[in-house]
């Protein structure tokens, strides 16, 4: 499948060949989609600019699970037929397996081109077939090696992650291990296919590592500057807008449990601040995906979906809560690592890096992290069970007021058919009140209609309910208000 497609660029000021390239405000952390060969060089040239040496260290993380090969300079990936144009959730993919798959993939491409007079057939994300003459085929690994001629300090690390759920604990550890020994101004670039969820998640983690460097390295240095209030610089002073809905503030029950268990409210505050900086302009960022608020937006969409779509969306929402949970836990880990790094300085290093007033400023590239994130999670093993049990603790359906439900049940049991008109009127009157917080429009209409369908089904007399359930199970009708009404009135006698 071709990686690039029409309208892949979502952001202004594009870098040619590198979709959705942007810098996270306040950090030397960059995010993008899969570049072309020329796009790689364009992005690296933009990152180094005139100030950073082209031979200096640059870290590039690729978070894709799909193997990539470059045909005529353009990226093409291998995907199963059922994942064309879909989110690539490909299971347990490792760096080594992805590299091995690329070696196999290039053989397949070369073989198919040879069998087709030097031409290659492939599809785009819309499954439309394309055909090109093959002039050059190169693996991603070889593309990176070629870039090192101009950028010899380039380090390319693959950390294959899935789209919705949290990266593995070991994925976080690979990122930290790769960044240890870098300076605070070392550029970090992270890509997935388009520059959306996976790359944004990686950028949040990379920014949190930069925060670790700032906290452990420069706190002593800042304290030597007269008149500077260190508290004003601390990320955990961040306060969420209290006017936002609780879900948009990330106040899910399982997140509250996490904060209480960690005894570190600052971890959520710092993580939220970094997530906002990695989000779109409305939360202070330059990006596309808002990892926290996207959960709330998906939850609002859930109310208007049909049952089949709800199953998929519910799984995605729970996966994204899992990811948010782990990002906060990772923040707590990095905050602990910063404290340990400051307190574990040897006498020799203190003397070497001492400042006026007795403070110490350890250079960022000399900082050590002596515990893995996996070990941190092992020490807090209760968190693993907490997130599994708690990520689904959401109110998936709005509760109908008890008095309204009692009224409807009374009308239904007294004389269902005689009262049917009033039942429908009262259901919609109740829906009008329950969904008053939603803005007018199609979403609200669909939410009220879906509520009416489910509520009518809920209060049906037992004999009618059995008929309707049997027909729904047989797929003769659906859980739709008019189809249920039809079966309960003129449809009587139609049996499953």
Helix percent reads: 40-55%
* Structural class by sheet pairing and helices: alpha/beta
- Helix and strand pattern: EEHEEEHEEEHEHEHHHHHHHHHHHHHH
Strand order of the largest sheet: 1-2-10-3-9
Residue-averaged pLDDT? 89
C-alpha end-to-end distance: 44 Å
By DSSP, the count of extended strands is: 10
Low-confidence runs of at least 5 consecutive residues: 220-230
Strand content: 5-15%
Main β-sheet: number of strands, strand sense, barrel status? 5 strands, mixed
Number of helices: 18
Shape estimate: globular
Which value, in Å, is the CA radius of gyration?
27 Å
Describe the structure.
The chain is of the alpha/beta class and 496 residues long. 49% of the residues lie in helices and 8% in strands. The chain is built from 18 helices and ten strands. A five-stranded mixed β-sheet has the order 1-2-10-3-9, with helices on one face. A hairpin with a 5-residue loop joins strand 6 and strand 7 (129-133). The longest helix has 37 residues, at 307-343. The radius of gyration is 27 Å and the shape is globular. Mean pLDDT is 89; it is low at 220-230.
Which descriptors would you attach to this protein?
single chain, alpha/beta, five-stranded mixed beta sheet, three-stranded antiparallel beta sheet
Spell out the blueprint of helices and strands.
Elements: E1 22-23, E2 29-32, H1 37-48, E3 58-62, E4 68-71, E5 74-77, H2 95-115, E6 119-123, E7 129-133, E8 137-139, H3 140-147, E9 154-158, H4 169-179, E10 188-191, H5 197-223, H6 230-233, H7 253-262, H8 265-278, H9 293-302, H10 307-343, H11 347-352, H12 373-379, H13 382-390, H14 402-415, H15 420-434, H16 442-459, H17 462-473, H18 481-488
């Amino acid at each position: 499948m071709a990686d690039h497609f029409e309208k892949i660029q979502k952001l202004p000021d594009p870098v040619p060949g590198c979709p959705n390239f942007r810098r996270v405000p306040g950090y030397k952390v960059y995010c993008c989609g899969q570049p072309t060969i020329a796009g790689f060089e364009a992005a690296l040239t933009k990152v180094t600019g005139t100030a950073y040496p082209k031979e200096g260290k640059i870290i590039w993380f690729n978070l894709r699970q799909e193997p990539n090969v470059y045909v005529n300079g353009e990226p093409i990936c291998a995907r199963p037929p059922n994942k064309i144009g879909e989110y690539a959730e490909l299971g347990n993919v490792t760096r080594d397996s992805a590299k091995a798959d690329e070696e196999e993939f290039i053989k397949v491409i070369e073989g198919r081109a040879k069998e087709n007079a030097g031409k290659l057939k492939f599809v785009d994300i819309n499954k439309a077939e394309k055909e090109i003459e093959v002039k050059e085929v190169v693996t991603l690994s070889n593309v990176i090696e070629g870039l090192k001629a101009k950028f010899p300090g380039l380090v390319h690390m693959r950390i294959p992650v899935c789209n919705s759920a949290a990266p593995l604990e070991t994925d976080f550890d690979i990122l930290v291990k790769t960044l240890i020994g870098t300076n605070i101004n070392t550029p970090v670039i992270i890509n997935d296919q388009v520059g959306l969820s996976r790359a944004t998640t990686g950028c949040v983690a990379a920014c949190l590592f930069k925060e670790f460097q700032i906290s452990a390295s420069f706190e002593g240095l800042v304290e030597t500057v007269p008149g500077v209030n260190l508290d004003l610089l601390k990320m955990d002073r961040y306060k969420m807008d209290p006017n936002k809905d609780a879900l948009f503030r990330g106040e899910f029950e399982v997140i509250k449990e996490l904060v209480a268990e960690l005894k570190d409210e600052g971890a959520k505050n710092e993580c939220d601040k970094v997530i906002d900086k990695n989000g779109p302009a409305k939360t202070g960022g330059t990006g596309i995906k808002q990892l926290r608020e996207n959960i709330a937006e998906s939850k609002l969409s859930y109310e208007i979906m049909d049952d089949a779509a709800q199953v998929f969306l519910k799984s995605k929402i729970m996966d994204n809560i899992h990811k948010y949970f782990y990002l906060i836990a990772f923040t707590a880990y990095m905050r602990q690592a910063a404290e340990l790094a400051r307190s574990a300085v040897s006498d020799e290093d203190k003397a070497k890096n001492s400042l006026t007033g007795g403070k110490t400023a350890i250079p960022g590239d000399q900082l050590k992290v002596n515990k893995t994130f996996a070990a941190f999670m092992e020490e807090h093993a209760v968190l693993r069970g907490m997130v599994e049990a708690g990520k689904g603790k959401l109110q998936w359906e709005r509760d109908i007021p008890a008095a309204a439900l009692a009224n409807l049940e009374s009308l239904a049991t007294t004389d269902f058919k005689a009262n049917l008109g009033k039942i429908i009127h009262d259901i919609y009157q109740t829906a009008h009140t329950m969904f008053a917080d939603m803005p007018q429009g199609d979403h609200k209409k669909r939410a009220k209609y879906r509520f009416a369908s489910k509520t009518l089904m809920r209060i049906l007399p037992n004999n009618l309910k059995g008929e309707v359930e049997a027909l729904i199970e047989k797929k003769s009708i659906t859980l739709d208000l008019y189809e249920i009404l039809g079966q309960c009135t003129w449809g009587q006698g139609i049996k499953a």
